[in-house]
Structures
1.
Amino acid sequence: MHTSSATDQPPPAAGTGDDETWRIRRTADDLDRLGETESIFALGNGWVGWRGVLDEGAPCGMPGSYVNGLHERRELSYPEEGYAFPQESDTVISAPNAALIRLWVDDEPLDIRTGTLRSHERVLDLRTGVLRRDTEWISPAGRGVRIRSTRLVSLPRRPVAAVRYEVEALDAPVELRVCSDLLANEKVPERSDDPRAASVPTDPLTAESYDANGLDGVLVHRTERSGQRVAVAVSHLVDGPDTVTTTGDCIPDRIRLTVTGRLHPGERLRLTKFAAYEWAAVDGVPADELAALVSAEADAARADGFDALLADQRAALDAAWQVADVRLDGDQELQQAVRFAMFHLIQAGRPDSDRTISAKGLTGNGYDGHVLWDTETYVLPVLTYLAPAVARSALTWRHAHLPEARERARELRLTGATFPWRTIGGRECSGYWPAGTAALHVNADIADAVLRYLAATDDQRFLADAGLELLVETARLWHGFGHWSGDGDFHLHGVTGPDEYAALVDDNVFTNLMAKRNLRGAADAAERHPDLAGRLGVDHDEVAGWRAAADAMVVPYDGEREVHQQAAGFTEQPEWDFANTGEDDYPLLLHFPYLELYRKQVVKQADLVLAMQVCPGEFTAAEKARNLTYYEARTVRDSSLSAAPQAVLAAEVGHLDLAYDLFAESVLQDLADLGDKTADGLHLASLAGAWLALVQGFGGLRDDRGVLSFDPRLPRRIDRLAFSLRWRGHRLRVTLTPTEARYELPDAASDTEVEVWHHGESVRITGAEAVTVPMPQVPDPGPEPASPPGRRPTRRSAA
Amino acid sequence: MHTSSATDQPPPAAGTGDDETWRIRRTADDLDRLGETESIFALGNGWVGWRGVLDEGAPCGMPGSYVNGLHERRELSYPEEGYAFPQESDTVISAPNAALIRLWVDDEPLDIRTGTLRSHERVLDLRTGVLRRDTEWISPAGRGVRIRSTRLVSLPRRPVAAVRYEVEALDAPVELRVCSDLLANEKVPERSDDPRAASVPTDPLTAESYDANGLDGVLVHRTERSGQRVAVAVSHLVDGPDTVTTTGDCIPDRIRLTVTGRLHPGERLRLTKFAAYEWAAVDGVPADELAALVSAEADAARADGFDALLADQRAALDAAWQVADVRLDGDQELQQAVRFAMFHLIQAGRPDSDRTISAKGLTGNGYDGHVLWDTETYVLPVLTYLAPAVARSALTWRHAHLPEARERARELRLTGATFPWRTIGGRECSGYWPAGTAALHVNADIADAVLRYLAATDDQRFLADAGLELLVETARLWHGFGHWSGDGDFHLHGVTGPDEYAALVDDNVFTNLMAKRNLRGAADAAERHPDLAGRLGVDHDEVAGWRAAADAMVVPYDGEREVHQQAAGFTEQPEWDFANTGEDDYPLLLHFPYLELYRKQVVKQADLVLAMQVCPGEFTAAEKARNLTYYEARTVRDSSLSAAPQAVLAAEVGHLDLAYDLFAESVLQDLADLGDKTADGLHLASLAGAWLALVQGFGGLRDDRGVLSFDPRLPRRIDRLAFSLRWRGHRLRVTLTPTEARYELPDAASDTEVEVWHHGESVRITGAEAVTVPMPQVPDPGPEPASPPGRRPTRRSAA
């Protein structure tokens, strides 16, 4: 082990200006994948989200302009009703869309499907946080224009989004008409039959007020059933030749600024639009107040100017990338993909909103815009280390919905709190209970996110305000739900674990181990904070009951096959007939009934393997290796949530090529649209999983015992892996090469000291000195575990 | 044992003319339970069914005039879709209603809710098969009339129903107007939220033709989606003073004959209406042909006259009661209830329709008019012995829908045939697959009904035409569905058994034993008929595979508790918290989520107990006693299917008081409306179960080995129990008293000989001589098994 100065590394966000790993580029060749591109180019700041639709709004895969939490409720009906089946569901809806700018050239509308597209390029710049567009278009009548636009959703300014739009006449004078719209109730395509798609209500917003004044305007709308009010203001700047004139008009669902004028070749017309979005409960903020608020915000943005927004955006991203950037030398495509993934994680949440991050973030309306367990199990473990205040926001949102969770528990005749499987507004929205309400593990997932956040931040205020209560109420759920068998074991029967190709099983290992952690975490916290716990009605007996249940929690194991059972009896279920399953039969859920899927040993997504990832201390190394082999052979990865946990475990066991290929699948989920579902929005959990695959997999990070330990091992393709994470207020940077691991605290005072573990040995890092330690040899783990026929991830590890 | 003449017993249908056990009577006191009364007074003949609505159609609980198989299809939609979820469901609809006869007295409509009801009585006569009504009503203006009507649905004439309606002026002359309607698309009340209720489409019938001519008329309608055409003809006779005039009119949905006239006190107006009902596939019989057919049928009935219909009805019932009557001395209320039950079973099916019997028969639209497993498991075991040709009809209907069942198996990626859980037209209509499609036992239930029918009749033609194919295709389902475990056992995992408070379990004993019988039955039949089997593609290897699976079928047993497990692991599930379950919490399914019900040891309805009823040879006497005690304590009887099997087993084990009380619950299900659901239609399975409770329970009939054996034992309340059954073409009559059992063949030639077993000893009965043998003492079975708190059936055994 040797130490060195903490400053001899380039800053993490560095790179040459031409580095394509910081950009995502799409050209005219990509116009047949509009929906996918719109998701990939989505901009957001955790509050406002704009899908990457073309300025002119058409052609379009799926419009979308979201404000976090804005939704409508719709009725659910069942062919056969059942007690406590949710009768309503939340559905994300678009706020009025302020991104639209349409252009007419000599009265012909700009539509890239008509005329001649001389050039067309859109670039998402991951460092500046803008979406740029550059199009040269010759109208059917032969008039040429160049359109450049720059769009951003401001990271530092919560309500603000803006677009700068420029038109230039190319070869001949043109008459232009530019319409900048703020449009409510945009038409959306029909719902598809795929259960994973969204149900989209028609005209969900009812106009309350509309007002345009010169270059400014504001719309206020409300929803009918969810009781929400949304206000959007726009404010414009127009810059062009003297011939240019502007007129404004408004109707209840639209505010339009029309700019007309004649441009000579080389002349430009520039329109800059500043928009501000807010929503509030109808009985919270009156319409005129909300209108005034967004108008002031849009005006302020205009007053500061677009360049100021650009500069602020860059500054915010520079700060974010200091922690979030992951350097991956040796595979440029995946280096780009990782930065893309991290960019969208940066965009997805914010520290000051007390809102959470849905499965698709603000990038699309897949899963109806619902929040699922993905957030706590995949996204928050990353944000806890990169942007802990954002993780706190999301957990505070859960806490705010404890009343609904308690009410749901009462309805289900359970104890404590039962958080919804899917929701926006806080109430259960799952319409298929065996894979919804029965997946009680979401409660332990929330508790786990609380425990991890507390371990990483030691945020006592959060503990007192929200964390302890979340731990206590979820522990109460498990204690009441479980039962003791005659032999003194504690069981959780009739639940559904992560694997959606199984349901209503007994003693799912993932659920049991997570519930055990939940019970112990609540007990520990209650004992450390007896006064706070007392106010929640927790007494010594209750804590003792939690501990007893946790200590006795059963973990099914098949002694004959020497593997854990995903749930009791799993290894005795019939095997899946892979030999007679064709390539076209995947995803299996679209070709086989649950009747077949549930009763057989076929795994949609990591479940026992996920248990080994999140509760690594509960398994020996040998068990992990045997379990990985057993479950790899039965896991078809029909869920985008699967590859990352498999990568982590494959790396831990030493199958680094397989781990690398699984990591690649996780990180390319959306950029390569592997599941053909990216058009509905990005798979944030898969993108977060890519970070976990790198940092937990190759970095070997384990944090389940309140300390940070690393067992790094690099796959062949990677020459260097560097990442950062925040731990107790410090930024720890880890740089791995095939021979060395380097640990440093680049921002810390020289007397700061942090202890981590490196392959089982204590390493003390100070602010003064980085520590470099050798990478041990990874022992040969034997033959690579076999995936189901045809289901091994694409091999890129050896390329 | 001594023998005696076969003729010293009174004929079974005998009784005095005043015997109230042959009548069901309702008066003005019952007008607050209209829907229930309409079901109880429903008339039918297995083809046409008329609910017992008042002649004037109002007040009315729920109108209903059915033709067996007539239905519409409606779309099903799911909050979350799944592969192979049925997209449409059949729903029973009313055919045009020909029962309606409305009366105006001096322009005031007869409505028993207005004016003064001086007397009102309706009587269902179980021997003559008519519903009589006698009402004296004083109009609000003070005009008195007496209305008498007699209604029948003709048992011998499949399409025919008729009503004779008489009005008499009482104290003063009255101007009468009588409207006799044939009305399509009658308004029906809104659907309730209860999952067991019906979904009723509005205006399901589209008029194709309507025609009235003098006193006759015919309507032809079609359905939009199910492709059915229904025609109903009416033909009238009018008899009254000379002042009476008639006019006819028709519109697409209604044919009306209006009779007007003036009656002096004592004068009568009599209107007799003959109706005929047929339906056919739209692409089967053209509209004019169907219209001509029903017109001819109605005309023929009119030509023969109402008195001829009455006489034919009585003759048909006399013949039916010869076999179907059960004499139960000692409890007049239950004697009446048993006759009521048997009357509705006689009415429910017919030998010449190749149609089946739905859960509610033709008495209401509960369960959407669907056929469920009740038919094969409860109703056909009775009809096989009382009216074997009706059982054959129902099984022939199943065979006619083998193509849909094969297609469903392919869709589910299973082998052989998979019959629907709920259907009218043959396709799966279950909208909740864990308690629908997963209840694969329906296939074994059908096979069992085939085997029982064949054993009782030796009907080789049915075997060749339908029976063998049903056995083979269902055996193929089980063989493909099951799997072998390493220890050489054969398993059926992930199915739902009879108990609807459990779902998706492994190795449900009932399912496994029934599948075992199915496999063996198919193997036996195929080996006995190698040519027929060969034509179905059955070879030696396939038969050997069925036998191997049957021989290795696993039957879960808890060696520690010494009871069978309803399904694997059942006895290790958490116990239900009966101490904290209130009276108002029943039925549990309306107050607890499936999440709680499924994972706990709470049983909605006999499941393991039903297995012991239908497969008695698979359990020792000691096992039966222990199992009964264990499951009685956990069975809440939230299903009307439960009491009868429990009664059978309680009787077998020797708990005769409990058995009697359970029998009473089964037989009074509808007459006492125990489940508050009789308004939706009668619970035919519960009514059939009452016969099983008597004949299998107290008569001790067991037939699972191809011979008839009786282990009779009478409960204290019963002085004499006498019943008949058909066996291989003979009518066997059994009369039981506390001391003696008498077996006879009342209709057989003197050289006919039948062997039965009585308490384990062979008894040979000849046509010449009845055999009387002593009833052995029933050994004391120990303390009565405890039911769940508050759930013991009402105690009437000791009264």
Note: The radius of gyration of chain B is 27 Å.
2.
Amino acid sequence: MAQERVSIIVFSGELDKCLAAFIIGTGAAASGMEVDMFFTFWGLSVLRKKGVKVKGKSFIEKMFGMMLPKGADNLALSKMHMLGMGTNMMKEVMKKKKVASLPELIEIAKQLGVNLYACEMSMNVLGLKREELIDGLKGVVGVATYLENASKAQITLFI
Amino acid sequence: MAQERVSIIVFSGELDKCLAAFIIGTGAAASGMEVDMFFTFWGLSVLRKKGVKVKGKSFIEKMFGMMLPKGADNLALSKMHMLGMGTNMMKEVMKKKKVASLPELIEIAKQLGVNLYACEMSMNVLGLKREELIDGLKGVVGVATYLENASKAQITLFI
Amino acid sequence: MAQERVSIIVFSGELDKCLAAFIIGTGAAASGMEVDMFFTFWGLSVLRKKGVKVKGKSFIEKMFGMMLPKGADNLALSKMHMLGMGTNMMKEVMKKKKVASLPELIEIAKQLGVNLYACEMSMNVLGLKREELIDGLKGVVGVATYLENASKAQITLFI
């Protein structure tokens, strides 16, 4: 029997949804499934490296860069963010209850061999460059690659 | 041929999205498919019983308890909630047009044998106890059970 | 081997999510896959024709009609809408970078033979009539048709 496969589009850049995506992704990888995570639109925020400055961006690209959260450590909850209070409370609780944080889950995903893809078209629209994203990505790809992988997966999700 | 199967993650606790999830779930069950609904994060609000008080909760767990909607009857629309006006209007219209309400759909789901699962990790993070959830759940389970069921399903959704 | 198939529920009426849905849908159709897009709840906004007036609507149906965006050209981003500024900025950038707009993607979808379905129950609840929707739809259908198509698809998404 062929290896089972999970394909997840991470469209949302919200902390709670990204946690769900990585808990499913790492859980599947840990149980021997092949996992593809395809980050697009706001989901690209998760893959941003901190403190990288890229020259030659247009005014609008700089604006997008300023407005998008800067990496997995800076995302907000989709609900109850409450100027950061709710989000911090959630992070505290997760720490106390020994649930892995989002940056930790990303590391685990890499170690388990989860395929992390960044969406080429969204990077182009938002003016994000490859060097602004974290290391260890499988590639910067388009919808064709997504479709090819997803059509082999038993579980396909849009988060 | 094996029985067809649908696997739905209910992540959102919004009325409109939960209605969609249950309309798909009950529709599938009514046509003979096996249906798994896995409630996680805000989606757990749907499964909350009214008026249950649990002792021994931490301050933060009490806060979460207060902020999360108390059951299927108290969810808000994702859009046009308008301090409750839009949500009430939607409920009125559905009633008038004889579309089942969310509490009714949950009852139908149970009668049709839909497998309702609560996510163990989210319950832990939010401090929700089993006795705060409605009766008739198939179980409180983790991501491994979700993956096992979903990998056998033809239709997998994240709502 | 049977033709591969993609099934997308478009629940959201937000510009960014609808763009994602159509980029996946047209991409799949262009590579020879059969594609079903099922528009429900707020997603029906995408299919609205401009400037159609229908008589005999109830007060609440008129309210819904006024509040729902009037077609693919009038959707807002799920984030950074900023009273229209962010949405317009996004549209400008997409145009400059030669990414197809949502109305263009809908045309491409039709030309590629993507099956566009409107959800009967949502139309009923929102009081939308067939003549208010764009031409070229495959049909106005219920959840049974959705399930029948989706159970044959390799990729199933809820957007």
Note: Chain A has a mean pLDDT of 93.
